Amino acid sequence: MSKAFIAAVLQDSLGCTGVAAARAADDVIAGIVGEIQRDGLFTLPGFGRFTRAERPAAQKLNPRTQEPVQVAASRTVRFKASPVLRELVDEKPAKAQAIVKTPERKGAGRGGNSGGKPVSRAAARRADSRA
Length: 131
What we know:
Layout: H1 3-14, H2 18-39, E1 41-44, E2 48-55, E3 58-61, E4 68-71, E5 74-81, H3 83-90, H4 93-99, H5 121-130
Antiparallel strand pairs: 1-2, 2-5, 3-4
């Protein structure tokens, strides 16, 4: 999956321009990264959980020369797929379609804005700062 793929899905779903969909995809990804940086955890129900993990400093071997090399401590992100996602990937297409929930109309379940379309937190903040 790529950012362009996410933008294309948003464009088809929302019926917006490619530029607006790319901006929305950027906002979604930035929101996920910010949440992981702040809390060390981001959970997307029905998809999975991203967690920040610490890698301690360690001494490894250079595979070419077999000399020891000191590797600095670092942080990384780990992903664990939800049981729903694992079942969707593992099952036959007919059963998988029955598990996936789709809204009845665009923007369903996301009240609060006049157009009925979903609004990201970042987009709402930008709109508030411009007003």
